[in-house]
Amino acid sequence: MLIYLLRHGATSYNAEGRYQGRTAVPLSAEGRAALAPADFSPESVYVSPLSRAAETAAILFPGAAQIPVPALTEMDFGVFEGRTWREMECNSDYRAWVEGGCTGPCPGGESRGEFSDRVCGAFAQLVDQELASGAERLVIVAHSGTQMAALERFALPPRGYFDWKSPCGGGFLLDAAPWRDHRRLELIKEVRFTRD
Questions:
Q1: Do the Cβ atoms of 76 and 21 come closer than 8 Å?
Q2: Catalytic (active-site) positions
Q3: Pair 146, 47: CB distance under 8 Å
Q4: Are 106 and 155 in contact, with CB atoms under 8 Å apart?
Q5: pLDDT tens digits, 161-171
Q6: Which of 191, 121, 188, 192 is nearest to 153 (CA)?
Q7: How far is CA 75 from CA 14, 56, 145, 178, 183, in A?
Q8: pLDDT tens string 57-115
Q9: Which candidate, 195, 176, 193, places its Cα nearest to that of 185?
Q10: Is the model's pLDDT at 196 over the cut of 80?
Q11: Number of C-beta neighbours around residue 10 at 10 A
């Protein structure tokens, strides 16, 4: 089975460098225009329930049924959401979080460990389910954090968490052949569904 794990298109928050997290920010006009329909048409696509993921899936895969998976939502950045790092560079909570490798809990939000466990549990369940059904392809449209969490844990060759971030409208194509025996996925290539 092939797995496409894709990031949503660009939003105004992306352009401004703002933490989006679980905030419902739609695609920007530029973000929509930059996306290009995929060259294949799955019957269904699993999506984060946030509008930017659903909008992206509708553009990339216009004929596909969308199946929302709440646990694939981006990390909850708590009080940091909607703000840029420049706006918070003197904020003691933000500085402590960054100096701790962005792993601790965000005030009012999640820690990276909590987020990764949530995402990886849902992701593994989808892989198991689709393999058991005999599916040839699993397509997920979510967030950069979703990609980083799932692929840091499951992808080969191994990379660090932040090394799995893709550009807006981009993502990864993976082979699920090693999954049943090793709970691992083999990276085939990086992909982009953009016009540039």
A1: yes
A2: 8, 74
A3: no
A4: no
A5: 999 999 999 99
A6: 121
A7: 15, 18, 6, 28, 23
A8: 999 999 999 999 999 999 999 999 999 999 999 999 999 999 999 999 999 999 999 99
A9: 176
A10: no
A11: 23
CA 61 to chain centre: 17
d(CA 162, CA 10): 18
Quick: pLDDT tens for 140-178: 999 999 999 999 999 999 999 999 999 999 999 999 999
Tokens representing residue 195 in the block? 């016009």
How much is the pLDDT for 3?
A: 98
